[in-house]
Amino acid sequence: MTTARRTQQQRRDQAETALLNAAAELAVEHGVRSLTLARVGERAGYSRGIVTHHFGSKQALLECLARATQTGFVPGLAGLPPGLDRLLQLVDGYVSALAELGVLNRAFLLLWAEAATASELAPIFRERDDAFRADLCDDVRAGIADGTIRPDAAPGEVAVEIVGQLRGIGLQRLLDPPAVNVERLHHTVTEHWRRALSARQT
User: Fold this and answer.
1) pLDDT tops 80 at residue 158
2) Which residues contact 79 (CB under 8 A, 6 or more apart)?
3) pLDDT above 70 covers what percent of the chain?
């Protein structure tokens, strides 16, 4: 019985991954307004009924897509305690990851930009950005507490600036890849924040 349940779960996970990839491809190619459960199912090789079974609605599909596209964008952060080192590794890893954007990451950036005018996306991406900023605020507060970040740094303002910079670089990378030298930029952006935040100026 245990083996049968595990196999069923594996099939479910495989179908969900295929459906999310199909949704990401359609979003990249045609935008969020092109997404329908039927088109996602067709692209993934499944029926609309399977898509409805997994997600229930287009809104739920978009929410899952937003979470899936952001998860794991910067690997290696889970084991790091909040603070300046984690913040700098996040910045460095985010810009470095822009060198080779997969379809899920491309979809996230494009949908994030589209959220400004798409009412079905706005609450989803506000929630994702709120979580992103909250993590950065934790890093700044922890750095102030341990003496690595200057005490007058404002966590909320720093978080808004970093999210805006990283998302903006990502969108420029999508729009005009040759203009964004990721190999050099991840060093300069990380060093900018090291200098701007460090309590020990060198």
Assistant:
1) yes
2) none
3) 94
Alpha carbon 181 to its chain centroid, in Å, reads 20
Per-residue model confidence (pLDDT) at position 8: 77
pTM, full prediction = 0.82
pLDDT band, residue 4 (cuts 50/70/90): low
Q: What is the mean pLDDT of residues 122-141?
A: 93
76: left (phi over 0), alpha (psi -120 to 50) or beta: left
Q: Which of 172, 191, 171 is nearest to 180 (CA)?
A: 172
